[in-house]
Amino acid sequence: MTNFPRIRLRSAAGVVCGTVVASALVGAIWGVLAPAEHLLVVAPDRGVTLTGESVHRFDAIGMFACAGLVVGILAAVAAWTARRSRGPVAVAAVLAGNIVGAGVMALAGLGVAALRFPGDDVSTPGTIVATAPGIGTLLVLVFQPLAACVVTLVLAALNPFDDLGISDSPVELDEWDERDATLTS
């Protein structure tokens, strides 16, 4: 017989590490794809947003939130596929991995965006400069762990087995109904 706590801890560590690595990769992709906001320099170190460019702030935040949702959903589903490790340890690993992963995704994305749009000379009035996109608010970091928790909850609620299917030979529902029918007859 296998040692369940060791399998569960190893699987939990894999979930956390995999989620953090995937989040860093998605953050770097966001940093490449997020649009810059263009400003017209009107005075040294002072600029005004060009018409139509202010929506790019929302575009960058929306892209980051959607990317976090996708990573959170995929991480929860991937963790659920490890049948023998389902339970409180797996939920904690999914939650911890997505919390840390959201922060890593923000750091990686902002770092790549800063490399993509280095600080231009903003001292010459009349020039147009592109500024690196940002995440706007730290509340956008909540989407990834929230999505992972909701997906895990839905998967657990839809599971027909009391033990979440972690036993070696789960009884099929059809077999259970047949046995139940023969016992009551």
UniProtKB/TrEMBL annotation:
InterPro entries: DUF2567 (IPR021213). The chain crosses the membrane at residues 12-33, 60-82, 89-115, 135-158. Coiled coil: none annotated. Keywords: Membrane, Transmembrane, Transmembrane helix. It holds the Pfam family DUF2567. It comes from the Bacteria. This is DUF2567 domain-containing protein. It comes from Rhodococcus oxybenzonivorans.
